[in-house]
Structure prediction request, 296 residues.
Amino acid sequence: MNRANDLSRIRPHQKKLSEAQIAAYRETGFLTVHHVLDGGLLERLVAATQRLYDEGRVLTEKTRHYDLESAHTAQAPRIRRISSPTELDDVFVDAAFNSLLGDIAADLIGGPVKFYHSKINFKLPQGGAEIGWHQDWPVFPHTNTNLVALSVPLNPSRAVNGCLQSIPGSHRQGPRSHWDQGVYKLNCNASMTPDDFSRVVDNELDPGDIVAHHGLVVHGSSQNRSDDLRTTYIIQYAAADALAYSAPVIDSRHRNLMVRGEPATHARVEAGVIELPPDFSAGYSGIYSLQTADKK
Prediction:
């Protein structure tokens, strides 16, 4: 870890969002912010992601960091996800902790914020898998629902290549079941209604933009129908006083490190009955694998 990424010293929070932007996030459950990342950081993220993608070509099976399609080969790589890239290149630490992304997360959390996990998702060309409708919080429930994910596109994200889709206001309807008849689906497709579908918003973005979404907003994405790979760096943040009830689906040495503010001395607990996910302590197969198993 270089000095620029010394995480023993927490950066002071500098507010980046307007009150109108924060109010819009609280109303809809998500917020798009354009032209967030400076060009230098974006270039470094793109270069590091390309390096990691190229290094994954030689793999023959899934690893802790790499999730592969069964058809993956060095000549025709089919990498679906790189988990915990903060362990693989310092630029991902720099973006998550030291850039204004940490300030935006603190603005939306409304107080001290910690890092929970990160990943790079690749939506493969010509049929890259859709992601079923889901909420993040039920997959890794915490003592309160004050979680926010920041999606950072590394190339243009459009409806045709399967951009993120969100349902405004769905975060105010509470958690939905991600189980169906005793089987864990990692989606809430069974609960979707015509009203939900009528309100879907395509979160189309350019590199340098971000979209932030609340831990309870219902979101998903369609297949990639284009000829180009769609690549997104996603950082999951949590309020300092939100403590996880279950094992992490993506773990790293950076989990629960503070990004802005001081660590919590008490957990804030929201009342209610919490439906737990499966025990992921022995490993998490990933949303793609679970969806594939669901179709068998």
User: Anything to note?
Assistant: The CA atoms of residues 95 and 236 lie 12 Å apart. The longest strand covers residues 113-123. The mean pLDDT is 93. The longest helix spans residues 39-55.
